[in-house]
Every structure is written in structure tokens, then in C-alpha cells.
Amino acid sequence: MSNFQVQQVGVFQVNEEGMFIQLEPQYILALQGLDGFSHLSVLWWFSDFDQEEMRQIYETPQPYKGAPEVMGTFATRGPIRPNPLALTTVQIIYVDYEKGLIQIAYTDANDGTPVLDIKPYTPSNDRVENPEVPKWCSDWPMSYETSGEFDWESVFNF
């Protein structure tokens, strides 16, 4: 088995002014050409769940109402995983190209959470026209835009 070395490119900042991605200074130049994109795919580290014992958990009791009684880690989007990686689509509100600061609408990362990579969201690569999901989650929103209005507390068992 190989080991990989990953460098964070920035961190999430959450404060009274909103939610931001603050890039490390050496990565600010990597923002060039981002103009015109409305969304990003952000790869980040579930740092609050990066504990060796959590990396050994491969199934979880029913995390969602109506889901199977036990689910494998790879069938959830939860933070407890063999490698605590998160992939999230975020809406760009504003980019400060000089400071390397991207204001985003929202994600469930905490203040100080490491950001590993950022990619522009492009429908040709990231959108699936007719995705299929299990019956137990078929009434969940079908888009990023409508998920903000959805009562997520009604589907989670935690």
C-alpha cells in the first residue's frame, strides 16, 4: 500500500461576515481564470474526525430515516471514513484575487478546516442529467439550488 503526501492549499474561515476559503499565499496565482464560474468543487479534510479509530469504522447504523438499518461508509457522505475526505460543491459569492480569499455561500466545514484542492464546477463534467438514487432518499432535492430550502433535519438520525 502506498502513502500519499497531500498539502493543504488553504482553510475555511467562518465568521460574522460569512464563509470563506482563504488560500495559502503561494496558491493565490492559481485563482487566475476563475472569473465567470459560479460554483466550485472543493476537496477538503474532515479534520475534526481524523482519528485512527474512526478510520477503522466501515459501516454505520442507519444515518438517514428510511435508509437500510446498516450502511457502509461508502454509501454515506458522513465524515467518518477510511480517509476523512469531503467533496462539496459551493457557490462563489466573491473572489478577492489579491488576498486569495473566496467568499462562498455555505458548506458544513468548520472554521480552520483544511482545504486540499479547488476545481471549477463545469456541468459537462460534474452534472448528471438523470441520476438514480435509492427509494429512501428519492424525495431529497435534485439540485444544489433547492437543497438550501429542504428540511434536512427531517431525514437525519443524528
Features:
158 residues, mainly beta, Elongation Factor Tu (Ef-tu), domain 3, 2 domains, six-stranded antiparallel barrel, two-stranded antiparallel sheet, 3 helices, 30% strand, transferase, methyltransferase activity, SAM-dependent methyltransferase
Task: Give your account of this protein's structure.
- This protein is mainly beta.
- The protein folds into two domains: 1-46 and 84-126, YaeB-like (Elongation Factor Tu (Ef-tu), domain 3, Beta Barrel); 51-82 and 128-158, no CATH class.
- It is 8% helix and 30% strand.
- The chain has helices at 52-55, 123-126, 144-147; strands spanning 10-15, 18-23, 39-45, 59-61, 70-72, 85-96, 101-104, 114-120.
- Strands 1-2-7-6-3-8 form a six-stranded antiparallel beta barrel. Strands 4-5 form a two-stranded antiparallel ribbon.
- The longest helix is centred in the middle third of the chain and has 4 residues, at 52-55.
- The protein is globular and about 50 Å long.
- 14% of the residues are buried.
- The model has no long low-confidence stretch (mean pLDDT 94).
- This is SAM-dependent methyltransferase.
- Belongs to the tRNA methyltransferase O family.
CATH superfamily of the largest domain: YaeB-like
What is the CATH C level class of the largest domain, in words? Answer: Mainly Beta
The topology string of helices and strands comes to EEEHEEEEEHH
CATH architecture of the largest domain: Beta Barrel
Distance between the termini: 34 Å
What does the main sheet amount to?
6 strands, antiparallel, barrel
- Arrangement of strands in the largest sheet: 1-2-7-6-3-8
Q: Specify the helix fraction band.
A: under 10%
What CATH calls the topology of the largest domain is: Elongation Factor Tu (Ef-tu), domain 3
Shape: globular
Give the class from helix and strand content and strand pairing.
mainly beta
